[in-house]
Amino acid sequence: GISMELVETRGEVHHFTFEHSKAYQAIQFQFLDAVETFNPDNIVALLNIHPLHVDSLIQFSDVCKMGEDLQMAAELIERALYCLESCFHPLFNVTQGTGRLDYRRPENRSLFLALFKHLHFVGQRGCPRTALEFCKLLLGLDPENDPLCATLMLDYFALRADQYQYLVRLYHEWEPSRNLSQLPNFAFSVPLALFQLARAQRDHQGGATGAHADRHAGTPVSEEDADRMLQDSLIMFPGVLTPLLDKCGIQPDAEVSKHHFFGLAAQAQQSPALSQLVSLFVGRHFGLWKEPEVLAWLERNVRVVLQRVDRGDPLVADSEAKRKRRYQGATPRNISRHILLSNIKEANLTLPQDLANAPIFGFDPLPPVDNIVSYTRPPRTVQVTDQSMVSAFFRSLLPSFNLPREVVGIAVDDRLVPGNDDGDLQHEDVGGAAGAANDGAPHVVDAGDLRRSVTSLLEAMRDLLNNIHLPSDAPNDGDMDSDDEHED
Fold it and tell me: In this structure, are residues 134 and 115 in contact, taking their beta carbons and an 8 Å threshold?
C-alpha cells in the first residue's frame, strides 16, 4: 500500500517521500468519496474493510475526539503512526534528524498530522518530555518551512518539561535567522525560562536540595537578565498582559488597569494576525504563569514598564512602529493550520474569503497552494436525475415513486420511427435527422422496454389511487334527529 522512497541527498540530509500503490490509491478515492458525504458511518464502513488506511484513521480520530472519546481518538492516531512507521526507509532515522519530508506532497502530510495530534495526546497524559521530543521530530521533518508551526508550541512543552537550558540555547541560536522574538510565545517563554534558571541557581546556593535545584545549578544566569527581557516583551506586546491575567484569574490593580498602555486600547490597536498569536499564547501558556512566585515577578516588572512608559522610553515608540509594520496582512497559512489543529478556544481563527466557505477536513486542513500532485482523482460519473413534470408530479404525491430509467431521457418532441427488422424503434427528432449516440450510431430503444415502462407507470398510478382513502362521512345532526324520531 504505502512505501517510502529516497528522493535526493544533500550533504548529510536525506529527502524522502511516501508513495501510494495503485491499490492504495483506489482506497484513497473511496475515502475521499466517504468524507464528502459528511457521514462518519461511511468512514467506519471503510475502516472495517481497510483497517490500516491512514487518512481514515486520522479523520475518524477527530470524530471520536468531538464525541469526547479521547482514548479511542488517541488509539486511532497511534495506529496511524504504526502504519506509517512500518513503511519507513532504512535511511530514515528519526533519532538523527537528517530525514526531510515535503509537506506539499499529499502523501507526506499524514505523518505531519499524526505526529501533531499524537504529541498533544501525550502531553495531556502528563508526559511533557515525550511530547517535547515528538515536537522536535515534527519540526525536524521540515524545519525551513515548518508547515504546522511547531515553533508555536515548542517553548510550551520545553517549559513544562523543565528544559530551560534547551529553550534558552535554542532561542539564542535561532534568533539571528528566524527572529523568534517576534513571536509572543518565545518573547515571554524565554524570560520565564531565565527566571526559573535563576531561581534554581539561587535555591542551590542557599543549600536547597532537590531534582529541580540540582538540574540547573551549573547554569550561571542572573535574574536581571530575565527582568530586562520580560520588560522588553511587555513593551513589545502590551496586549498580552490583560488577557493573561484574566485567564489566570488575577484582577490587576487600578494603576495597571487604568493606564492607557495596558488598557483595552492596547488590545484594540492590535492587528488581527497579532491578536491571533496573542490569543494562542494566552490560551496555551496561562497555566505556566499561575505560580505565585512567577506572578510576583511579573507584577514587579509591570510596574517598572509603566515607569519607563511614563518617562518616554524610546523603546516604546520603536516597538509600536514595529507592530504596525510587521503584523499586517492575512495570517500565514501554516499559522492558521496550527490554530485549527490546536483547538484552543481562546484563539479565534479568521480565514480569508477564499477559504471561509470551503470545507475543512481533519486529514488535510488548509492544504498548501503549491501542491505537488503525484496522482489525480478520476472524474466521477454523475447520474442525471429525472426532473420531468410527470415524475415531479408523481413524486410529490408518492415520495417513493421513481420513474423507470428507460423512460428518463426520452424527449417529448421525439417521434418513434420504424427501425430494423428486429422490431426495434429508433428516435428521430422534429427536424427529421436521426439521433446519434456516442459513436454516431442511432439511439435505439426496445419496444418491449417501452411498453414495460408505460405499464410500470400505469401500475404506479393505480397504486396511488388505491392508497387514497377518503374519510368516512360523519352523521349530521339531521340524521340523528330523524333516527330518534323513528325510535319514538
Answer: yes
Alpha-carbon gap, residue 322 to 315, rounded angstroms: 10
Rounded distance, CA 153 to CA 422, Å?
Answer: 76
∠ CA 285-287-289, rounded to 5°: 80
Q: Which long-range contacts (CB under 8 A, 24 or more apart) does 118-121 make?
A: 118/74, 118/77, 118/78, 118/81, 119/157, 120/342, 121/70, 121/73, 121/74, 121/77
CA angle 31, 33, 35 (to 5 degrees): 70
Give whole-number Cα distances, 471 to 28, 464, 476, in Å.
Answer: 55, 16, 14
d(CA 457, CA 310): 88
Q: How far apart are CA 348 and CA 276, in angstroms?
A: 7
Tell me: the pLDDT tens digits for 450-483?
556 556 656 666 665 566 555 554 444 444 444 4
Q: DSSP letter for 210, please.
A: S
Contacts of residue 377, Cβ cutoff 8 Å, sequence gap at least 6: 29, 32
CA-to-CA separations, 168 to 116, 129, 133, 263, 402, in angstroms, rounded: 23, 16, 16, 30, 70
Nearest CA-CA partner of 184 in 303, 266, 259: 266
CA-to-CA separations, 421 to 266, 333, 416, 443, 452, in angstroms, rounded: 89, 67, 15, 16, 21
CA separation, residue 210 to residues 166, 194, 202, 214, 290 (Å)? 20, 19, 13, 6, 22
Instruction: Give pLDDT tens digits for 319-334.
Output: 999 998 888 888 889 9
Quick one: three-class SS letters along 37-68? CCCHHHHHHHHHHCCCCHHHHHHHHHHHHHCC
Quote the DSSP letter at residue 438: T
Write the CB contacts of 324 (distance below 8 Å, at least 6 apart in sequence). Answer: 271
CA distances from 388 to 51, 409, 427 (A): 43, 9, 19
What is the model's pTM? Answer: 0.76
Domains belonging to the chain, first-starting first, are 1-144+347-370 (1.25.40.10), 149-205+220-329 (no CATH)
Cell of 192: 520565564
